[in-house]
UniProtKB/TrEMBL annotation:
<keyword id="KW-0963">Cytoplasm</keyword>
<dbReference type="InterPro" id="IPR054691">
    <property type="entry name" value="LeuA/HCS_post-cat"/>
</dbReference>
<feature type="compositionally biased region" description="Polar residues">
    <location>
        <begin position="524"/>
        <end position="538"/>
    </location>
</feature>
<feature type="binding site">
    <location>
        <position position="246"/>
    </location>
    <ligand>
        <name>Mn(2+)</name>
    </ligand>
</feature>
<comment type="pathway">
    <text>Amino-acid biosynthesis; L-leucine biosynthesis; L-leucine from 3-methyl-2-oxobutanoate: step 1/4.</text>
</comment>
<dbReference type="InterPro" id="IPR050073">
    <property type="entry name" value="2-IPM_HCS-like"/>
</dbReference>
<dbReference type="InterPro" id="IPR002034">
    <property type="entry name" value="AIPM/Hcit_synth_CS"/>
</dbReference>
<dbReference type="Pfam" id="PF00682">
    <property type="entry name" value="HMGL-like"/>
</dbReference>
<comment type="function">
    <text>Catalyzes the condensation of the acetyl group of acetyl-CoA with 3-methyl-2-oxobutanoate (2-ketoisovalerate) to form 3-carboxy-3-hydroxy-4-methylpentanoate (2-isopropylmalate).</text>
</comment>
<feature type="binding site">
    <location>
        <position position="212"/>
    </location>
    <ligand>
        <name>Mn(2+)</name>
    </ligand>
</feature>
<dbReference type="Pfam" id="PF22617">
    <property type="entry name" value="HCS_D2"/>
</dbReference>
<keyword id="KW-0808">Transferase</keyword>
<dbReference type="Pfam" id="PF08502">
    <property type="entry name" value="LeuA_dimer"/>
</dbReference>
<dbReference type="InterPro" id="IPR005671">
    <property type="entry name" value="LeuA_bact_synth"/>
</dbReference>
<feature type="binding site">
    <location>
        <position position="210"/>
    </location>
    <ligand>
        <name>Mn(2+)</name>
    </ligand>
</feature>
<keyword id="KW-0028">Amino-acid biosynthesis</keyword>
<keyword id="KW-0479">Metal-binding</keyword>
Length: 546
């Protein structure tokens, strides 16, 4: 068992797999969650909130698998979320059993607006339930976190009482969520200071913060909280999460690193101390960001701090000139510090399976034999088209081949005819889950539209395409293009991703990958479906619930 980290460094609690996964369309399957959890462990997060086990069998399984394979003795603590209800807490405890270091995170709202309209409970009732449920969680694990949901809109005196009772009942971490992203930095700092000064037993617990980015203030709020005593930050990769998202891990970590001389004294250190403020290996940041973006289909905006495509690019002549003379004129951190290395050529046409496998392992990809075989075929195919293969190409291949949606429908053929004097026409052959090969063709406004129409004729699941984007992995005319699409079916969003040197093929594959997620959701939810069944390929599936 690990001991509780001391108060003189910042604990990074990653909730990409729980709050992050609540972003519309970001839903991940169990294997994808496991892949992300492994990468979060490499990144060095202290706690992984792996899911909300009571909500679905998929979430339960994901938490259990992550607990088993990532929650090792020296690995991160694995956490499961539970409402302050016995069935939720018990389910979380069951899922977390295989973890060497397990945490149950239970929550109950404390703001009047939530009490009156959502919970229909009085303050007196909340003061009874909280210690009872914390003690119940404590009967399963030692490490219990309690969150008063909507803390920032709760009356401070009442909040202090709730926290005191939670700690008295055994909570080792008390988390202060800005659930609706309403607070400002100075208010949040004052709230944390108030908690430190007014909760009599606060020295027995770590103060944590959680916050949403509705006003774009989440990271600033957290940094002010650190100055006032918060020692755990709940954040997500790329800042994904409910509505406008959560505080972004990469921004917090790099702010604490780049401005360490400013923050050190707030943690009782000398300003010039070089002891890291977090446990994060910042060179893993870029890779983790790309992985999460690829698997969730949540694109990173180019101007996003730290991990956006433009974060280290200098466009203006004056800036370029300055950087060439001395990087520090316009750069406050090195691209290398987040793992954005020179895009070196690493492999070529003559490289064998062993070299390919070795480089992927060096890049942190662990693959089963069948996945490796598939990836190697893709690599050879790419090496035929593109002489020089870089790390970024390898990452695109690995992310694409290994962590895909279940292969229920498979694209067997896509052919397009288009040009300025012809009407874009696509022919596709798709293998259905029942093993039948169906071919159809369609005309569209452009080649991609024609492909989607042709696939729709075969697959026959009504859906609305809400996002289509193509990004180039490397520079050059022979670069791999990554296509990300998001589609909506009955209010639910599903994403698909694919990488190929031919963006027409990537578009078709990305669409099929999103349809596979949609199809899987329809299959796993038939009993909750609405009235009319849907004909998919040659199968009839009940409609998924909104
Ligand atoms: O935003 C929130 O309040 C939450 C809690 C469950 C911590 O996500
Ligand atoms: Zn949240």
């Amino acid at each position: 068992m690990k001991t509780q980290p001391s108060q003189d460094r910042i604990i990074i609690f990653d909730t990409t797999l729980r709050d992050g996964e609540q972003s519309p369309g970001a839903s991940l399957n169990v294997d994808e969650k496991l892949t992300i959890a492994r990468q979060l462990a490499r990144l060095g997060v202290d706690v992984i909130e792996a899911g909300f086990p009571f909500t679905s069998t998929g979430d339960f399984e994901a938490v259990q698998k992550i607990a088993r394979s990532v929650g090792t003795e020296h690995g991160p603590t694995i956490c499961g979320l539970a409402r302050a209800r016995k069935p939720d807490i018990k389910r979380a405890a069951e899922a977390l059993k295989p973890a060497a270091n397990a945490r149950i995170h239970t929550f109950l709202a404390t703001s009047d607006i939530h009490l009156e309209h959502k919970l229909k409970k009085t303050r007196a009732e909340i003061l009874e339930i909280v210690p009872e449920m914390v003690a119940y969680a404590k009967s399963f694990v030692n490490d219990v976190e309690f969150s008063p949901e909507d803390a920032c809109r709760s009356e401070p005196e009442f909040l202090y009482q709730v926290l005191e009772r939670a700690i008295a009942a055994g909570a080792t971490t008390v988390n202060i969520p800005d659930t609706v992203g309403y607070t400002t930095p100075s208010e949040f700092g004052a709230l944390i200071r108030g908690i430190k000064e007014n909760v009599p037993n606060i020295d027995r617990a770590i103060i944590s913060v959680h916050g949403h980015n509705d006003l774009g203030l989440a990271v600033a709020n957290f940094l002010e909280a650190v100055k006032n005593g918060a020692r755990q930050l709940e954040c997500t990769i790329n800042g994904i999460g409910e509505r406008a998202g959560n505080a972004a891990l990469e921004e917090l970590v790099m702010a604490l690193y780049v401005r360490r001389q400013y923050y050190n004294p707030f943690l009782g250190r000398a300003a010039d101390s070089e002891e890291p403020l977090t446990n994060i290996d910042s060179r893993q940041i870029y890779k983790t960001s790309r992985l999460v973006s690829n698997l969730t289909g949540m694109l990173v905006q180019p101007n996003k701090a730290i991990v956006g495509a433009n974060a280290f690019a200098h466009e203006s002549g004056i800036h370029q000139d300055g950087v060439l003379k001395n990087k520090r004129t316009y750069e406050i951190m090195d691209a290398e510090s987040i793992g954005l290395t020179e895009n070196q050529i690493v492999l070529g046409k003559l490289s064998g399976r062993h070299a390919f496998h070795t480089r992927l392992k060096e890049l942190g990809f662990e693959m089963a034999d069948d996945e490796l075989n598939k990836a190697f075929v893709k690599f050879k195919d790419l090496a035929d088209k593109k002489k020089e293969i870089t790390d970024w190409d390898l990452e695109a291949i690995a992310n694409n081949e290994v962590h895909q949606a279940p292969e229920l429908f498979r694209l067997e053929l896509v052919q397009v005819s288009c040009g300025d004097k012809s009407r874009p026409t696509a022919t596709v052959t798709v293998r259905t889950p029942a093993g039948e090969e169906l071919t159809d063709a369609a005309i569209g406004t452009g080649p991609v539209d024609a492909i989607y129409r042709a696939i729709n004729r075969v697959v026959n699941v009504p859906n609305e395409l809400i996002e289509f984007s193509v990004q180039s992995v490397t520079a050059g005319i022979d670069a791999i293009g990554e296509v990300t699409i998001r589609l909506r079916h009955e209010g639910k969003v599903f994403s698909g991703h694919s990488a190929n040197t031919d963006i027409i093929v990537a578009s078709a594959e990305a669409y099929i990958s999103a349809l596979n997620r949609l199809y899987q959701a329809l299959q796993s939810n038939p009993e909750k479906s609405s009235e009319q069944p849907t004909q998919i390929g040659n199968q009839v599936v009940a409609k998924a619930q909104r």
